[in-house]
Amino acid sequence: MVSAAIIIGALLVAALLALTPRIRRSSAWKATVTPLSSIMGSGFLVSAPLVAAEAGLYAPLAMAGLLVVAFAIGGMIRFNIRYAEPEAEGGGEPSDAGSDAHRAHRGHHQRSRGHWSGAQPRLTGTLEKASHVVLAVAYVVSVTYYLQLLSAFALDRFGVADLLWSRVLCTAVLGGITAVGAVWGLKALEGLETWAVSLNLGMIAALLVALAVHDGTLLASGDLALPELQPDPDLPHAARIVMGLLIVVQGFETSRFLGDEHSADERIRTMRTAQILASVIYLAFVTLTLPLFDASHLDADVTAIVRLVAPVAVALPTLIVVTAVGSQLSAAVADDAACAGLLRTFFRGRVRARWSYLGIGALTIGLTWLTDVLEIISLASRAFALFYALQCAVALLTARGREDAPHRRWVMGLAGALALLSLAIAVLGIPAE
Fold it and tell me: What does the pLDDT look like over 64-95, one tens digit per residue?
């Protein structure tokens, strides 16, 4: 009965989001759901086991720390949308808003090309361009991360936990995406995103309700108890691992590159909303899962959530795996297209999208065979941290030159501190063990 209610609830939420005309046409909803789905898809399912493995019962506090850092960095990117973007407007080649490229491809090209025209102050422009190059590299890593995660969840359902088979499946999916991108362009897969995002949000809603009911029932009966989860006694080591988990709250920067269909005000407002919603969801999820952990079997396993929620409802593991496969595939396609959009800017359109997709495919397949899923999580976190460090440096320089910016001295101080913190994450973050 509970399983049926969970499945029906998840499907109803997904159908409501995917099929309601008013929601589908809403510009604000599109601008909100893009960063929200990116944040949730980045690491929602792996967040609780990985953070709990290091922080024990302090997992909600560790998660809150990551979210506060992410929100503060998001504030710097919102500052750049407001004040740094106008300095680069009007540069580059004409917009291609009507092209048949994937939405992420168009958005990243449209929002980056002006910065490569030399319209910004020299140092600010150099840092901005450097951040775009780093972001392109980060996207290559994140595509690999998403599909390694997809492979891990898909094979786990069949009882397969072999690194070789995971790499084979990941390579096959990467090969398929690369072939579609090279032959038809990834817009051919854009329709998948609507359903994948809707199903992912529906599953998250159903999962949180199921966990709340489960914990509430235990509390009412007097059976609710927290396991004796001890944090890693080596605090510097634990801190470095938590630093390496920044990828699980990454994705908000997509608002920076939503393209010409959304105004700066709308992107700023909806990005803030997406980060707040994601923070509430993450904190609720990590807190509600604590009673499910077993201290004797606590390790950094990315698919641990599948076994963790089995006592809550029989249907949850299957629902999670299906949703994970769809959301990770959708996220990989979007980041692949985004990387190709940045490459178009770098090469000023001289390299055809076909060759960009082939190059991205070759790099991601190479990374698949050189890393495992825990290593790629840390590597992706460090790559995005370097992008954030550069964006914070851009915010600092922009605030210094914009006397009309409110609270500019506070912005400069915070941007400098966050740039140093992001750089520390990029240098010191390590994989979970």
Answer: 999 999 999 999 999 999 998 887 665 445 44
User: What global pTM score does this model have?
Assistant: 0.91
Query: Cβ distance 127 to 397 under 8 Å?
Result: yes
**DSSP 8-state secondary structure symbol assigned to residue 260:** T
The token pair that represents 398 in the structure block: 């922009």
Work out the number of other CB atoms within 10 angstroms of the CB of residue 241.
25
Domain 2-428 fold is Amino acid/polyamine transporter I (1.20.1740)
Residue 121 DSSP one-character state: -
Inform me whether the pLDDT recorded for 376 exceeds 60.
Answer: yes
Task: Answer whether 1's CB lies under 8 Å from 211's CB.
Answer: no
Residue 90 Rama label (left phi>0; alpha psi -120 to 50; beta):
left
Return contacts of 363-371, CB within 8 angstroms, 24+ apart: 363/140, 364/140, 364/143, 364/144, 364/147, 364/174, 364/336, 365/171, 365/174, 365/175, 367/140, 367/141, 367/144, 368/144, 368/147, 368/148, 368/167, 368/170, 368/171, 368/174, 369/167, 369/171, 371/144, 371/148
CB atoms within 10 A of CB 217: 11
Residue 311 and residue 249: Cα distance in Å, rounded?
A: 27
* Both tokens assigned to 160: 């397969």
List phi, psi (to 5°) of 426.
Answer: -65, -35
Residue that is written with structure tokens 């891990």 in the block: 152
Residue 406: is it exposed, middle or buried by C-beta count within 10 angstroms (0-12/13-18/19+)?
exposed
Q: Which amino acid is at 423?
A: L
d(CA 9, CA 31): 25
**Cβ(27)–Cβ(262) below 8 Å:** yes
Domains of the chain by residue range: 2-428
